[in-house]
Amino acid sequence: MKDARPLPQYLVQRYQGWKATAHAENKAWFRRLAEEGQRPRTMVISCCDSRVHVSAMFRADGGEFFIHRNIAALVPPYAPDGGNHGTSAAIEYAVTVLKVANLLVVGHSRCGGIKGCHDMCAGLAPELEEKTSFIGRWMDILRPSYDRTEGAATEADRLEAMEKDAVLVSLENLMTFPYVRAAVEAEELALHGLWKDIAEGVVECYDSEAGRFVAI
Amino acid sequence: MKDARPLPQYLVQRYQGWKATAHAENKAWFRRLAEEGQRPRTMVISCCDSRVHVSAMFRADGGEFFIHRNIAALVPPYAPDGGNHGTSAAIEYAVTVLKVANLLVVGHSRCGGIKGCHDMCAGLAPELEEKTSFIGRWMDILRPSYDRTEGAATEADRLEAMEKDAVLVSLENLMTFPYVRAAVEAEELALHGLWKDIAEGVVECYDSEAGRFVAI
Amino acid sequence: MKDARPLPQYLVQRYQGWKATAHAENKAWFRRLAEEGQRPRTMVISCCDSRVHVSAMFRADGGEFFIHRNIAALVPPYAPDGGNHGTSAAIEYAVTVLKVANLLVVGHSRCGGIKGCHDMCAGLAPELEEKTSFIGRWMDILRPSYDRTEGAATEADRLEAMEKDAVLVSLENLMTFPYVRAAVEAEELALHGLWKDIAEGVVECYDSEAGRFVAI
Amino acid sequence: MKDARPLPQYLVQRYQGWKATAHAENKAWFRRLAEEGQRPRTMVISCCDSRVHVSAMFRADGGEFFIHRNIAALVPPYAPDGGNHGTSAAIEYAVTVLKVANLLVVGHSRCGGIKGCHDMCAGLAPELEEKTSFIGRWMDILRPSYDRTEGAATEADRLEAMEKDAVLVSLENLMTFPYVRAAVEAEELALHGLWKDIAEGVVECYDSEAGRFVAI
């Protein structure tokens, strides 16, 4: 692999600082986690967006959260067709191997993936309709949300509605995985749907009785 | 979505503490990031493992890293076949929309995904060969590494060799994405291959001149 | 003291969150508690086990519970022999200085201390018989319970029987403290024996009329 | 045991609320903790005082902290004399069985035990000198601190100095336990000394380089 470059110095320096402080202070724990294996209580499915930082927000340290991050925090439906499904592999590992007790799906405001989906469905982004667009094909998972949010007053409202609906779509798709459904029904796994306003830091949690997201 | 549960109280309390401190201290910045959009310098592809915490290790705060996390930090080859490819969508978004300058692939020791791949290839885990195994099908990406590490003295050596080879496979696969190759060739994007020993906190970076991983 | 280390950063951050929220909201009360002294209504004697969290379970806030926690929530018999008796000191302080009105002894399922006592008495853990084993010498307090539970059908049944009997032994030992007996007889202090199933969260309370533990 | 009373209704009601909410929301995790056993990262030795609530302050949930609480958070010196040493048993269990990675000793302001020790040493509390005084005999562990804080300007200063010195005495005594010393020297265990101002909520951590407590 001739194209790999050395790591930028500012990252090397920060890493060395981390190793001399945070790592040094927790050496024993990290060794035990390495030897005995991880036992995370929680899986988080969150967006790749650089403004969403779930372990900071929930003050989670090494060993607590098993985290999958993809564009828009989406879960595709269960489709054991022999293809390479990274999200589904992460879910299978977390639920069947690690047996996590909680699974959080975390959407957020100003999501670029959701905006792309909106524009694609509105006919404003024909390039996303192309077969070669991985973003477009990934956001296909969310097409139903475009129709389900038709009544929104403004585009901003519709985007927020789609961001929240995406969390529900992912939770619904999670329930199509037989081991997720079985674990939820056996009360061995609890699902949680969250949406974060990245400007104000407000987090809302889906309340299934009220049928809407409510600030925590 | 009737299966969503309220967030456990301990996470709500930790979140409220974060909001009153870390968020409150950075309100202005988070608002700007929301209004003007993210502009991350770096994309990171890392493992879901709860013991690998790249933003802590590199002291990255909101806005710096666009992070995709999947099992074993793998990148599949470029395959614009119309399917839902989450990893490829994240790469396309980071490189073509966000135009990140650096892309880090971060493997690690004691990786459960790599162990699964090893066992599958060694005939020890027939269940991973089944079509319905998302983990197995995801780890298919890494089958060549099993053969390439045949000479290892012990199983532990081979696992570490596979963990490091997986980083190179991912970097090679990245170069099959036309926009990644173009950006690398135009020197607009630099690729970096890392491997972290989770027990000791040592990070090694692939040195393409030396042809091996070297501690940073 | 050259061996003290800085507090891990994740605990510092969580603390700062607590200070900015829970503490800030209760500043006046905590100041009064500091100036006027504590006046807890209840003493709790509970196990050190990380899975037993009595103040959470009874929703107790600062100032309510005076809590002593030791291995297996044991109370040794009254023995004013001039030695360092931490449990007895805590009881003396709670009953004679603070004059608590209630005293709860809280045992629980899957108790490692009780299991150790069982194995020691069954001849399966000779290392616990050694003079240097503090765990063994501490669990000596409970040896009578091993004999008293002989009739149990299975080991699991016997362990649960010992866990519950341990609560009764502790209550009996409490009555050997002259000020405890005097306060109980004057109806200034009520004793309560509890056992918690940590898996299911069921709490049982000893009913002295029925002569057995009953779910509350 | 005829002296056990039913639990007061207000506690029963709070418990039922906890079971229907916090427990119900975490059922799966508590079951796993019960089946697979606890694996706490941290042991805490803290005071029985009702105003000191370490798990709240550090936002720790079930499974995180193994907690021993006694009067003044004291650790006696290693003394394997065959007696019932509850504190030593808890330390032995945490370090040799659970292999915790961190051990926090947490002192605090306005500590009644420390005040008793001060008064006893100053000749103001002859009743604490009696052989039958468990509080006095327990606080004997701290007599050296009275002498070491002679230079304090006021009684309030001296009490605070004794409270902080008590933390150091406990850390020193911890190092007399052979397995504690071995684990510290092998960097498998880190010790931390803390003192909390209960009025203001300020926490100070002993800084062994500076040789004094510093606010975190």
UniProtKB/TrEMBL annotation, chains A, B, C, D:
<keyword id="KW-0862">Zinc</keyword>
<dbReference type="GO" id="GO:0004089">
    <property type="term" value="F:carbonate dehydratase activity"/>
</dbReference>
<feature type="binding site">
    <location>
        <position position="49"/>
    </location>
    <ligand>
        <name>Zn(2+)</name>
    </ligand>
</feature>
<dbReference type="InterPro" id="IPR001765">
    <property type="entry name" value="Carbonic_anhydrase"/>
</dbReference>
<dbReference type="GO" id="GO:0008270">
    <property type="term" value="F:zinc ion binding"/>
</dbReference>
<dbReference type="InterPro" id="IPR036874">
    <property type="entry name" value="Carbonic_anhydrase_sf"/>
</dbReference>
<comment type="function">
    <text>Reversible hydration of carbon dioxide.</text>
</comment>
<feature type="binding site">
    <location>
        <position position="108"/>
    </location>
    <ligand>
        <name>Zn(2+)</name>
    </ligand>
</feature>
<keyword id="KW-0479">Metal-binding</keyword>
<dbReference type="InterPro" id="IPR015892">
    <property type="entry name" value="Carbonic_anhydrase_CS"/>
</dbReference>
<dbReference type="Pfam" id="PF00484">
    <property type="entry name" value="Pro_CA"/>
</dbReference>
<protein>
    <recommendedName>
        <fullName>Carbonic anhydrase</fullName>
        <ecNumber>4.2.1.1</ecNumber>
    </recommendedName>
</protein>
<dbReference type="GO" id="GO:0015976">
    <property type="term" value="P:carbon utilization"/>
</dbReference>
<keyword id="KW-0456">Lyase</keyword>
<feature type="binding site">
    <location>
        <position position="47"/>
    </location>
    <ligand>
        <name>Zn(2+)</name>
    </ligand>
</feature>
<comment type="similarity">
    <text>Belongs to the beta-class carbonic anhydrase family.</text>
</comment>
<dbReference type="InterPro" id="IPR045066">
    <property type="entry name" value="Beta_CA_cladeB"/>
</dbReference>
<feature type="binding site">
    <location>
        <position position="111"/>
    </location>
    <ligand>
        <name>Zn(2+)</name>
    </ligand>
</feature>
